[in-house]
Write a structure and sequence with these properties.
Helices cover about 30% and strands about 20% of the residues. It is of the alpha+beta class. It binds zinc ion (ZN).
């Protein structure tokens, strides 16, 4: 989603001059220097994505780095005709000198989005820790195999670990394992060479097709949420698997849910919530 968001943000904000940065949600800002005020007068270059981070770099290479977490949303709004009250869910706002504003809003009580203001985004530890990014052509089969072999964890956990592979979230990981016909519970070290190849191919195919589908459906607008309708298993518990007609199942955890097809992925077995939640930690 972030890839398309960054692309579609370009037409709206790149080349614009920052007038001010307002940080409204105190827990949002992760850095103390440079200050928001010091960004006044800087011109934004092309927005980018690094892993699950949105990077808004200026022409002097300083950057506003944003992690939306689950509930953060980016909007670009035109200048209001007269002074209006700040929207209640507004966490931060970048105002440009033509009146356009880029707003970060976060719905719900839990405010988990994060923002960093940095002199150079390549110095940011959060970005340095990221693993290879499949949509940047960084994940060859050799690198994938090395990452798999270097970890002894459930496939689902492995896929969503940003230090192992960058940019894959909960939705994509369910789709990748479905595509590869692998159980989310399998251990990384247990895959045969053929299974590892199938998983790597599924990963690249799912990342590419999902990005392309979203690019098409967004039609130049800023996507605001994960596109449930583009997924086959993720968020589709109770639906019939188009491959084997089994019923897509779900396992709930404290902070996320996992979806899979028992017919294609677990040899017909249903996974148990309680046992899994401990194992998949
Ligand atoms: Zn199936």
């Amino acid at each position: 989603m972030l890839e398309v968001l960054a692309e579609n943000l370009a037409a709206r904000v790149s080349g614009r001059r920052i007038e001010s940065i307002l940080i409204r949600q105190p827990a949002l800002l992760q850095t103390s220097a440079p200050t928001p005020e010091s960004f006044a007068g800087e011109f934004l270059s092309l927005p980018g994505r690094v892993g699950k981070y949105l990077v808004l770099e200026t022409e002097s290479r300083r950057a506003i780095v944003i992690h939306l977490m689950r509930a953060g949303r980016i909007l670009v709004v035109a200048a209001p005709e007269r002074a209006a009250a700040l929207p209640r869910q507004l966490s931060a706002r970048v105002a440009f000198d033509d009146g356009t504003r880029l707003e970060l809003v976060e719905h719900g009580k839990e405010k988990r989005a994060r923002l960093w203001l940095v002199e150079d985004s390549s110095d940011l530890a959060e970005l340095q820790r990221l693993g290879p990014d499949p949509s940047r052509g960084e994940l060859s089969h050799e690198r994938f195999r090395a990452a798999l072999d270097g970890a002894s964890r459930r496939l689902k956990t492995f896929l969503t670990d940003q230090r192992a592979i960058a940019g894959i979230g909960n939705g994509l990981s369910d789709e990748i394992l479905y595509e590869a016909r692998l159980s989310p519970m399998r251990l990384t070290g247990s895959l045969t060479e053929a299974e590892a190849r199938a998983m790597h191919a599924a990963l690249l195919a799912v990342v590419t097709t999902q990005t392309e589908k979203l690019r098409q459906s967004a039609q130049g607008e800023l996507p605001q949420k994960e596109p449930r309708e583009h997924y086959i298993v993720h968020d589709h518990a109770g639906a019939k698997c188009p491959r084997c007609a089994a019923t897509i199942a779900r396992v709930s955890f404290t902070d996320h849910e996992l979806f899979y097809c028992p017919g294609c992925q677990t040899g017909g077995k249903l996974m148990q919530d309680r046992r899994l939640s401990k194992l998949l930690k």
